[in-house]
């Protein structure tokens, strides 16, 4: 089965000179907030099989709207998901699809919108809307855009400053995409409760002289590390 391709467009460019930071308010910049959400999405969507993800950016980057939709179109994405933070005096969450979008895109919007609202992070559901935005119009695949709260609203800004809330917002996006595409979790990905049982081994040195190995082991033991020597 061909892998599904999901293009995640993290809105705006970045926090550096000459870049578009997006909306600004309450000590927050949109470019940074959506980047953090995007990094959680990357981890969470990575737990599913038969899916490939491409990000418009995973850092600060000059990248026009046209470059974004071109990239997604050339790549042959199945879905285009653009993530933004609102501004201009309002509160809550809303999502957008293109005015002329068909049933498939509506179903995509329904899935993602309801999963995000279901996380109960936002105090208001502003609804599923339609708008003639470049990224919705020029992308060839089912495309939607989320506006995750208002950066210039105190209540929403407090949400956007909370790491745990951003993780929930990311999870809503991922669960919506997974439901719409019918994605399944990779068999080896276990619930977080059992992750603590994973064992990570760290090797600090390899020596041909056993005496040197013993010395390093003694040094580490002194510092409180559990050590053992393995002959290979
Ligand atoms: Zn924006």
Automatic annotation (TrEMBL):
SUPFAM superfamilies: Sporulation related repeat, Zn-dependent exopeptidases
Residue intervals of the SPOR domain: 194-232
GO biological process terms, semicolon-separated: peptidoglycan catabolic process
Keywords recorded for this protein, A-Z: Hydrolase
UniProt-listed InterPro entries: MurNAc-LAA_cat, N-acetylmuramoyl_amidase_3, SPOR-like_dom, SPOR-like_sf
A Pfam cross-reference name: SPOR
Entry superkingdom: Bacteria
GO molecular function: N-acetylmuramoyl-L-alanine amidase activity; peptidoglycan binding
One Gene Ontology term, aspect cellular component: outer membrane-bounded periplasmic space
Signal keyword on record: no
PANTHER family named among the record's database cross-references: N-ACETYLMURAMOYL-L-ALANINE AMIDASE, N-ACETYLMURAMOYL-L-ALANINE AMIDASE AMIC
Protein name, entry field: N-acetylmuramoyl-L-alanine amidase
Organism: Cytobacillus firmus
Classification of source organism: Bacteria, Bacillati, Bacillota, Bacilli, Bacillales
């Amino acid at each position: 089965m061909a892998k599904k391709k999901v293009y995640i467009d993290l809105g705006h460019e970045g926090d550096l000179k000459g870049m578009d930071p997006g909306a600004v308010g309450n000590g927050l910049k949109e470019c940074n907030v959506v980047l953090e959400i995007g990094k959680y999405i990357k981890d969470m969507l990575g737990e599913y099989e038969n899916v490939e993800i491409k990000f418009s950016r995973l850092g600060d980057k000059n990248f026009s709207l046209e470059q974004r939709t071109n990239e997604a179109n050339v790549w042959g994405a199945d879905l285009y998901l653009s993530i933004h933070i609102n501004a201009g005096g309002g509160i809550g969450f809303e999502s957008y699809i293109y005015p002329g979008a068909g049933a498939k895109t509506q179903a995509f919007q329904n899935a993602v919108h309801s999963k995000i609202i279901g996380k109960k992070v936002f105090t208001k559901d502003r609804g599923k809307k339609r708008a003639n935005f470049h990224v919705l119009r020029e992308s060839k695949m089912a495309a939607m855009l989320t506006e995750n709260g208002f950066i210039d609203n105190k209540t929403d800004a407090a949400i956007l400053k909370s790491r745990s809330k951003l993780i929930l917002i990311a999870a809503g996006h991922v669960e919506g995409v997974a439901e719409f595409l019918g994605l399944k979790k990779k068999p080896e990905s276990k619930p977080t409760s059992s992750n603590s049982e994973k064992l990570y081994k760290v090797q600090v040195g390899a020596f041909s002289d056993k005496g040197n190995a013993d010395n390093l082991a003694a040094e580490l033991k002194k510092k409180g590390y559990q050590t053992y020597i393995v002959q290979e």
